[in-house]
Write the structure tokens for this entry.
Amino acid sequence: MPDALIALQTSLSERLAELRGVAAEELPAELLDIAVRPVDLPGGRVYIVRPADFEALRDEEGMAPGQPLPYWARLWPSASLLALELAGRPPGPGTRVLELGCGLGLPSVVAARGGAAVTASDGHTDAVAFAAHNLALNELEGTVVIADMTDDADALVERGPFDLVLAADVLYTVSNGDAMLRLAPRLLEPNGELWLADPDRAGGRRFLAAARSLFHVRTKDGDEAKLHTLKPR
């Protein structure tokens, strides 16, 4: 393993152990078996560190009592679609950006590359560790916080308001769609926007049906997901 990857693995191990409240030796090997993936986008390449074998990590974590499944550990098509849109329409320097359910944080990395003041949030502590390392890996600055859009809604609102809120495939349950409907209007500046990438999940359809009374909605089709741009009415 190259020295740079060993150093990254060591740093991740320390942060993951700290956030989980365990010794580094107790972390699953599948979590620390990492790979760095290049992602080519308009404006240049970025790099994403992630667990190398998502299925192996999912199987391991699925057997751990009380441990949520690591859906954050995969680079989902919705995140790639949102990153591509951000690369083509980068938020300007100083734009206040919040990513909800950031997972590995690819959209946050691309927004920060454009000079935005980025806050990446996720309710899963492991995701927060990886997202923070992905910003650092690309020599970018940003704030990464442990916050779930349901349980920590008020804390997220206190960090705003934001010019741009990003969300990639976070409406995988109906309850998440309901939570987003309550939260999104509280997060945005009056002229702000929500960029939602969703692969037509039930929670997404429910959210969009209800959101049209509060937002102007514009939709762009992608190969595996749709990008919805929402602006307050």
